[in-house]
Amino acid sequence: MALARSIANRYARALVDVALEQKVQERVPVELEEVQGLLARQAELRQVLENPALPAPVRVGILTQVLERAGIHKVTQNFLLFLLTRNRLAFLGDIVQAFMDALDARMGILAAEVITAADLAPGQREQLRARLSEMIGRKVKPNFGTDPSIIGGVVVKIGSTIYDGSIRQQLETVRQRIAG
After folding, report:
1. pTM attached to this predicted model
2. Which domains does the chain have, with CATH numbers?
């Protein structure tokens, strides 16, 4: 597991550098996820591409055709072909996640876990994202989840800091005051 993370981080940092230099940082993550999804859905294609018994030029030709038909940008194409020739395509999932994390870090975007009692409407999610960004003073990329046990309100975790505005927490505070 540590080896996969180390490999993923190394390749992800290099791709972030190139994506920012070429000003395709918005496009590359979308394309990486698109190709990752394609390989997950097309097990036969993935097996062919990861088969070391097949000559590398054959595998490169197959992947090149797939990427060109999908309209994948040259930066993403070159990166995926590089992974293929280094027999690292099996690490694509880890690399995509490491790339997203590294890109967010380089762009000053903080990841936030946002838990609510029920799903929020898209407008509410955007309002909450904007409010968090304003509160923190940096861009925030929220990952939304639900937990009915919080009853209402919201719990936000950014890094090691937790902002607990849940009704469950408020009730616990009241209970402690009454008991104390």
Report:
1. 0.74
2. 2-105 (1.10.520.20), 109-179 (3.40.30)
